[in-house]
Amino acid sequence: MARRRPQGRSTGPRCRRGRLERGAASWVTLLLLLVVAGGVYAAVVFVPAAVLHYEVKQVVRDYGNQAIKNPDDERLIADMLTKIRSLKSEPGEDAAGRKGMVPLIDVDRRDITWERNREATPATLRVAFEYPRTLPLPWLDRGLERIYRVDLTMDQVRADWGPAR
Question: What share of the chain is helix, strand, coil (3-state, %, to 5)?
Answer without folding.
Answer: 40, 25, 35
